[in-house]
Write a structure and sequence with these properties.
This protein is an alpha/beta fold and about 500 residues long. The chain has 19 helices and 23 strands. It has three domains: about 190 residues, Methylglyoxal synthase-like domain (Rossmann fold); about 110 residues, AICAR transformylase, duplication domain (Cytidine Deaminase, domain 2); about 120 residues, AICAR transformylase, duplication domain (Cytidine Deaminase, domain 2, 3-Layer(aba) Sandwich), CATH 3.40.140.20. Helices cover about 40% and strands about 20% of the residues. The strands form six sheets. It has a six-stranded mixed sheet, sandwiched between helices. A six-stranded mixed sheet has the order 18-23-22-21-19-20, sandwiched between helices. Strands 4-3-2-5-6 form a five-stranded parallel sheet, with helices on both faces. Helix 8 packs antiparallel against helix 10, helix 17 packs parallel to helix 18 and helix 18 packs parallel to helix 19. It is elongated.
Length: about 500
């Protein structure tokens, strides 16, 4: 236990600071402060010393320099059990500081509000970060409080122990303090990388804890704890329904990513279950695109996540209302559509706000992270190479490019079958590409789809001609795949023999 005799307070946010400050005043703790915090404490009726009176230097450079002085940092960093430290403290008349209460300039908040470059630069905190790190480093002798959410807990411990703070509390608060400064620096680094145009390079290190933390009800299963680290408010606006779960967020993200491949002026509906599309359709109206998407696999659509790229009208809402689904993600909702959809209280309605995907994708493995660039490549017609004797006609090109968009977002190994702007079926997450094709064929037949003239997309190349041969036997007339196998010619020869057209993209789309 250490006794808190002197405290330094310098905060941007004053919310709930009175709770802690009044306890410090009650315990006769000597208070040192700066600027707006100094004025705030005085208005509470507390006796407080200005930092400039301690350092004999005024705030300068437009407030950039306030606390960066040996009399402040010496007071925080001195080791109470080291005789030489105590000798120097006495020689230079430096008061020991036992408690540091600091929060940082609102860099992320300013960024959200569209801050200019100059405004962003001025929101890069220097003194605050230095004070937090110094106090956290010396946690054996100093308590640091960097999160206003901890004011109440620290105030209660001080009050109950008559001014003492335990080592256990100091350790926890020090760890949290370093997490806060690390996240803060990561945000600044990402911002500066953006304005510097740095997008392609992998970062030298990766922060595992981002801010803010959003605790979830549980993870993939009820016995697993879970949280989302990031800014959900920048992703969507929830206008109805229960809080999103871990699985909800995973599926909503998958639906958002797939929908983003399609042109916004063409009404498109995507239905996702366990991150794989079980329904995708483009049509002239949103209501018809939903009907067609649902027809792909109405069984799997039950309890799924739906994303659309048009404002939801009443006609579409009435159709949607007949299905139990977890989430509907849309750019907007008409008022009469909301009246229909809000009849089920737990149904989650989201207005999408995120305009683009981040540059990086992160996955945990062993005791670390795998980081890769997001897969933003997708072959256009001009990128594709016709490798068969027969070339696709306009209708076949449309089917092939449509299928390739879906296969990119489906778990490997996968085969996707499409026709006339509709997903007929897909084989997902199979250990064999042949099995993926067989699964897709069986599923399409289950829901009465005619595969004559359909297109087939594969996420990776065909090492053997077997998939082409099976597809031809079902009436499939066109194939799109990355190419690149040493046995590509075997599949091409099979296409030529069976009257099928094949194009290669040069882009593999594994999704594990």
């Amino acid at each position: 236990m250490i006794q808190i005799k002197t405290a330094l307070l310098s905060t941007f946010y004053k919310d709930d600071l009175a709770v802690l400050s009044n306890i410090l005043g009650k315990l006769k703790v000597a208070l040192i402060s700066t600027g707006g915090t100094l004025d705030y404490l005085k208005k509470l009726g507390l006796e407080v010393r200005a930092v400039e009176d301690l350092t004999d230097f005024p705030e300068m450079l437009g407030g950039r320099v306030k606390t960066l002085h040996p009399k402040v940092f010496g007071g925080i960093l001195n080791r109470r059990q080291v005789a030489e430290d105590q000798s120097q403290i006495a020689e230079y008349d430096i008061p020991s500081i036992d408690l540091v209460v600091v929060n940082l300039y609102p860099f992320e908040e300013t960024l959200k509000n569209g801050g200019t470059l100059q405004e962003m630069i001025e929101k890069i905190d220097i003194g605050g970060v230095s004070l937090i790190r110094a106090a956290a480093k010396n946690f054996e002798d100093v308590c640091v409080v960097a999160d206003p959410a901890d004011y109440q807990q620290v105030a209660e411990e001080l009050d109950h122990s008559n001014g003492f703070i335990s080592l256990e509390t100091r350790k926890k608060l020090a760890a949290k303090a370093f997490q806060i400064t690390a996240s803060y620096d990561a945000s600044i680094g990402q911002y500066l990388s953006g304005i510097a145009g740095i997008k392609e390079e992998l970062p030298e290190s990766w922060l595992t804890i981002a801010s803010p933390k959003n605790e979830l009800r549980y993870g993939e299963n009820p016995h697993q704890k879970a949280a989302f680290y990031g800014d959900l408010d920048a992703c969507y606006e929830k206008i109805h329904g229960k809080e999103l779960s871990y699985n909800n967020l995973v599926d909503a993200g998958a639906a958002f990513d797939l929908l983003g491949e399609f042109e916004t002026h063409k009404p498109t509906t995507v239905i996702v279950k366990h991150t794989n599309a079980c329904g995708v359709a483009i049509s002239d109206t949103l209501s018809l695109s939903y009907k067609l998407a649902l027809s792909c696999d109405p069984t799997s659509a039950f309890g799924g996540v739906i994303a659309v790229n048009q404002k939801v009208d009443k006609e579409t809402a009435v159709l949607l209302n007949d299905l139990f689904f977890e989430i509907l993600l849309a750019p907007a909702f008409e008022n009469d559509a909301l009246e229909v959809l809000r009849t089920r209280k737990n149904r989650i309605l989201l207005i999408s706000k995120l305009s683009s995907k981040p540059n990086w994708q992160i996955k945990s493995v062993f005791n670390g992270l795998l980081v890769q660039q997001n897969d933003v490549s997708l072959a256009s017609k001009e990128d594709c190479k016709v490798v068969s004797e027969k070339s696709p006609d306009d209708s076949e090109w449309a089917n092939l490019l449509f299928a390739n968009k879906i296969v990119k977002h489906t778990k490997s190994n996968t085969i996707v079958l499409t026709k006339d702007g509709i997903l007929l079926a897909s084989g997902t997450g199979q250990t064999s590409r042949v099995d993926a094709l067989k699964q897709a064929i069986q599923k399409a037949k289950t829901y009465g789809f005619d595969l004559e003239g359909a297109a087939m997309a594969s996420d990776a190349f065909f090492p053997f001609p077997d998939c082409v041969e099976i597809a031809a036997g079902e009436g499939i007339k066109s194939v799109i795949q990355p190419g690149g196998s040493i046995k590509d010619q075997d599949s091409i020869d099979a296409c030529n023999r069976l009257g099928i057209c094949m194009v290669t993209t040069g882009y593999r789309h594994f999704k594990h």
